[in-house]
Amino acid sequence: MLLAWNQFAWATEFPSGYYQEIALTLSAQCKAARGWTTWFSRNKNAKLWVAEERMRFVLNAARRFDTLLNGSQRSQVEVSIREIAAGGGLT
To answer: For the chain, first and last CA: distance in Å?
Structure first.
């Protein structure tokens, strides 16, 4: 029920402000570079707890990660992974 409320509030920008976007950021920095974040569906009826919907999100994130690893930003991704593994980042 809480996941459903969070999704509805985030997708509709409900004015309470008590919601959190569901996203995966592929960076150790708090403010990730443009293109380093994958968001869950903005559909107000999306259901993170339904495996098929969740897996679409996970696969999109995996595709984005693969693109970053095989592109010109590979070295930046490697640095972020090392920072996260060392318990750091979050700058």
So the answer is: 33
DSSP strands (E only) in 18-69: 23-25, 37-39
The SS3 assignment for 29 reads coil
Cα separation values, 50 from 16, 36, 72, Å: 26, 25, 35
What is the dihedral sign for C-alpha 90, 78, 86, 48?
A: positive
CA distance 54 to 38: 12
pLDDT classification of 55: cutoffs 50, 70, 90: very high
pTM, entire model: 0.69
CA angle 55, 60, 62 (to 5 degrees): 90
- Which pLDDT tens digit goes with each residue over 2-13? 888 888 888 888
